[in-house]
Amino acid sequence: MPDFHEVRFPLDVARGARGGPERQTHIVTLASGREVRNSRWAHSRRRYDAGLGIRNLDALAAVVSFFEERRGRLHGFRWRDQLDWKSCAPSQQPAATDQVIGIGDGVAATFQLCKVYGTGASAYSREITKPCDDTVRLAMDGVELPASAFSCNLSTGQVTFAAGSIPPPAAVVTAGFAFDVPVRFDADAIEVDLSAFAAGEIPRVPVVEIIP
User: Fold this and answer.
1) Does this model's pTM top 0.70?
2) Cβ count near 35 (within 10 Å)
């Protein structure tokens, strides 16, 4: 059985979850009072608490069922981050010119989907490995390509151009897409007190981003 299941956590619960990106920065304060700061992670890691999205017993039962099917922390799965799940702003629809994913050289046929945060030298590029089915759109030098010109691996986020459509030298390849975050449960137990739940207590269901 694969260690990653290509299934999405229940959307109605994920919509009410809390969480976001996390980084780890090591800070040393010198005798002068100045700081030396070093980022220990090259990439951010997202954490969520799905418990806040559980509003009733049916939702709780669905989460427990999903948890059991994943065998707790054993298998990864897809998660929809309601704030950040498109190549564009949340209020917009993905367009084929949203993100630059590479420059053609006349030989390379495969490109990795990515999303860039910020601009200039400090911009951060994040690999997108879990695009959503039927949402990936590509363009070359601003002209959108037909779906027959490429294929997309939904498990890795790599797009491959068909023979005859490989980007020529200096061609700018862009993409638009919707995507999920690869995650796993961050606990091997879900503790539920039904009397407390009925009184408004929220169970804790931690979820953490992984590299599948």
Assistant:
1) yes
2) 9
